[in-house]
Design a protein that fits this description.
By secondary structure, the protein is α/β, with parallel strands linked by helices. It has a single domain (3-264), classed as Aldolase class I (TIM Barrel), CATH 3.20.20.70. It has 13 helices and ten strands. An eight-stranded parallel beta barrel has the order 1-4-5-6-7-8-9-10, surrounded by six helices. Strands 2-3 form a two-stranded antiparallel ribbon. Strand 4 (92-96), helix 5 (106-115) and strand 5 form a beta-alpha-beta unit. It starts with 5 loop residues before the first helix and ends with a helix.
Length: 275
């Protein structure tokens, strides 16, 4: 596919999917069920998990495919993979729910939510309040808001709605200008995606360069391209609190072991966290 226009193509597909969902259930129905679901949910569980001290906080991601790499692990079980991640010490789990390019679905998220006790992030292309309510209804503790896909008014509105439901928003940026927009929306959790959505090229230098532009007090998450403990050490030194890792874990024969190796703290890290 034409990577230069990836974001607009996937949003176009999502608009068609959203229209299908609205034809089956009204906004008021989804809103009602979301409010009921959140009554028994722990508020801000995702952020609390990422603030835990004395460990490397990894958001382990479940995804079967991606536009840049094609099939990663076709036929993988969301629940089984999530249990592996929980055994490996993940702080939270991210679930790709986009159907057309990532081969995901909301049912995967619901299955993960029922299989583990960890907070769950819905990773998708969200631009409408209907999607916020359906995320809550499926059991998400947090959802992704991509700054590049939203205007300022929509970003702020969806962020406030997410917070009103007691959920967290991972506000994703790719550039210094987008980081400034995240600051303007008063984002509390900011994710820096090391993958350029126009070229699909991945570089940790994106996270390293943008860290100094982050909103004061924001919890920082580095996403994509994290392969080993050395990568995590570099990012921690720049102020990152958590790390979203997908392909490395999905391709591992033993995801729990791969996650333990990735999250291993050095003695210096242990001493720093104890202070």
């Amino acid at each position: 596919m034409d990577s230069s226009d990836f974001l607009s193509k996937i949003i176009e597909k999502k608009r068609l999917r959203l229209a299908e969902a609205r034809s089956l259930r009204t906004l008021e129905e989804v809103r009602r069920d979301a409010l009921a679901a959140r009554e028994s949910a722990q508020p801000n569980a995702f952020r609390a998990a990422l603030e835990t001290q004395g460990r490397v906080n990894i958001i382990a991601e479940f995804k079967r495919a991606s536009p840049s790499k094609g099939e990663i692990r076709a036929g993988a079980s969301a629940g089984e993979t999530a249990r592996e991640y929980e055994r490996g010490g993940a702080a939270a789990i991210s679930v790709l729910t986009e159907q057309d390019y990532f081969r995901g679905c909301l049912e995967d998220l619901a299955e993960v939510n029922e299989s583990v006790r960890l907070p769950v992030l819905r990773k998708d292309f969200i631009f409408d309040e209907y999607q916020v309510f359906e995320s809550a209804n499926a059991g998400a503790d947090a959802l992704l808001l991509i700054v590049a896909a939203l205007d300022d008014e929509t970003l702020t509105r969806l962020l406030r709605l997410t917070e009103q439901l007691g959920m967290d928003a991972l506000v994703e940026v790719h550039t210094a200008a987008e980081m400034q927009r995240a600051r303007g929306a008063d984002a509390r959790i900011v994710g820096v995606n090391n993958r350029d959505l126009r070229t699909f090229e991945v570089s940790l230098e994106t996270s390293i360069g943008l860290a100094r532009h982050a909103p004061e007090g924001a919890l920082l998450v580095s996403e994509s391209g994290i392969r080993d403990v050395q990568d995590i050490a570099r990012l921690r030194a720049c102020g990152y609190n958590a790390f979203l890792v997908g392909e490395t874990l999905m391709r591992a024969g033993r995801p729990a072991d791969a996650l333990r190796a990735l999250a291993k703290l050095s003695e210096d890290d242990d001493r720093r966290d104890a202070r």
